[in-house]
């Protein structure tokens, strides 16, 4: 126990340890720019052809897509008014909202016509969210 720890204990002050100090440094703060039309949550940034084909089909550029890893998704679902696509990531039950899409990994998606059809139906449902004007 350091002298500072001992002194705090004598003053009956509870000392807390910050586990993720980068939050206060702004590294994990997520700012959603006005140009963002889709949030993609995946373990790593998609590079498969089907991903780029989907973006092209819904007429979105990479600049209009915000990519986040699951650990970077620190905002609540109620605050997000943008379609959020979870790729091969189980979204937490509290994170589900009316603008959430869940799919398997993109390699499996590319081979499964049923899953592609389901995704396409959801994307068509959210078309006005991608292009509000």
TrEMBL record:
Part of the beta sliding clamp loading complex, which hydrolyzes ATP to load the beta clamp onto primed DNA to form the DNA replication pre-initiation complex. DNA polymerase III is a complex, multichain enzyme responsible for most of the replicative synthesis in bacteria. This DNA polymerase also exhibits 3' to 5' exonuclease activity. Gene3D superfamilies: DNA polymerase III, psi subunit (3.40.50.10220). SUPFAM superfamilies: DNA polymerase III psi subunit. One of its GO terms (biological process) is DNA replication. The keyword Nucleotidyltransferase applies. This is DNA polymerase III subunit psi. It holds the Pfam family DNA_III_psi. Keywords: DNA replication, DNA-directed DNA polymerase, Nucleotidyltransferase, Transferase. The keyword Secreted does not apply.
